């Protein structure tokens, strides 16, 4: 019984005590803030799993001979799979905005360099604009992914609709 955690049985349970970071409002966000995701090294297994889900069976994604014959150093990781690494949930961003989140409304991207199995990706979201709209606001982020060589392989934007402070 000595090693049992001590709790105050009279303390009312509050799920807000379990937040990873304190949630902030739209008005508390700042242009320039960066939310990084942990790096990930892609494997052939990741590509095979994505191919199964996407049903994209183009040989550039799995056939080493075909890929090299067409100017690639190896099979190319699916672009949409690379884009998926910009998912905000891989960062602290959804925890920071907490209950203010309404919707992920828009995204765009450019694929700048090919990605192959063995590459390590470093995704980040940086707030580049805040657009108040009365009871809501749009947070615009730059979405970037660099590889292990520091090369920018993906660049784009995300937009999120958040409730304003007065509506939370």
Largest sheet: 6 strands, antiparallel
Distance between the termini: 43 Å
Structural class: alpha+beta
At CATH level 2, the architecture of the domain at 24-42 and 77-167 is Roll
CATH secondary-structure class of the domain at 24-42 and 77-167: Alpha Beta
SSE order, one letter for each helix or strand: EEHHHHEEEE
Shape: globular
Give the mean pLDDT: 92
The helix content, as a percent range, equals: 10-25%
Relative strand content: 25-35%
Query: What is the overall number of helices?
Result: 4
What CATH calls the topology of the domain at 24-42 and 77-167 is: Thiol Ester Dehydrase, Chain A
Quaternary structure: single chain
Number of strands: 6
CATH level-four homologous superfamily name of the domain at 24-42 and 77-167: Hotdog Thioesterase
InterPro entries: HotDog_dom_sf, MaoC-like_dom, MCH/BMMD
Domain MaoC-like: 32-127
Protein name: Acyl dehydratase
Structural commentary:
- With 168 residues, the chain is α+β, with helices and mostly antiparallel strands.
- It has a domain at 24-42 and 77-167: Thiol Ester Dehydrase, Chain A, CATH 3.10.129.
- 17% of the residues lie in helices and 32% in strands.
- It contains 4 helices and 6 strands, in the order E-E-H-H-H-H-E-E-E-E.
- Strand 4 (120-133) and strand 5 (136-146) form a beta hairpin.
- It is globular, with a radius of gyration of 21 Å.
- The mean pLDDT is 92.
């Amino acid at each position: 019984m000595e090693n049992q955690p001590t709790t105050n049985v009279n303390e009312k349970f509050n799920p807000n005590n379990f937040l990873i970071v304190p949630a902030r409002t739209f008005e508390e966000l700042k242009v320039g803030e960066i939310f990084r995701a942990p790096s990930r090294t892609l494997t052939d297994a990741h590509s095979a799993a994505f191919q199964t889900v996407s049903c994209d069976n183009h040989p550039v994604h799995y056939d080493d001979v075909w890929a090299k014959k067409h100017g690639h150093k190896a099979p190319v990781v699916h672009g949409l799979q690379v884009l998926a690494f910009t998912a905000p949930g891989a960062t602290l961003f959804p925890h920071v905005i907490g209950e203010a989140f309404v919707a992920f409304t828009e995204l765009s991207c450019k694929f700048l360099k090919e990605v192959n199995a063995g590459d390590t990706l470093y995704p980040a979201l940086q707030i580049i604009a805040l657009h108040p709209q009365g009871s809501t606001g749009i947070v615009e982020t730059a979405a970037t992914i660099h590889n292990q060589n520091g090369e920018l392989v993906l660049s784009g934007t995300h937009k999120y609709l958040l409730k304003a402070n007065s509506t939370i």
